[in-house]
Amino acid sequence: MVIIGAGEAAACAAAAMRDAGWTGAITIVGEERHRPYERPPLSKSALTDEEQPEVRVSAEALRFDALGIVHKSDTRVVRIDRASKQIHTLDGETIGYDKLLLATGAQARPLLVGGGEYALTLRSHEDVWALRQFFGKGRHVLIVGGGLIGLELAASANELGACATIIENRERLLTRCVEAQIAETIQKTHTQRGNRFRFAVDVESIERDSVTLTNGERIEGDVVVAAVGAQPDVALAEDADIEVDNGILTDAFLRTSDPDIFACGDCACAKHPLFGDRPRRMESWQVARDQGALVGRNMVLPPVPQSAVPWFWSDQYDCQLQVAGMPDLGATVVERRLDSETILYFYLSKNGTLVGAAAYGYLRTLAKDMLVSQRLIAASAKPDAAFLAAADRRLKALLAA
Ligand SMILES: Cc1cc2nc3c(=O)[nH]c(=O)nc-3n(C[C@H](O)[C@H](O)[C@H](O)COP(=O)(O)OP(=O)(O)OC[C@H]3O[C@@H](n4cnc5c(N)ncnc54)[C@H](O)[C@@H]3O)c2cc1C
Question: Which of 242, 290, 337, 391 is the most exposed place for a label (fewest CB within 10 A)?
Answer without folding.
Answer: 337
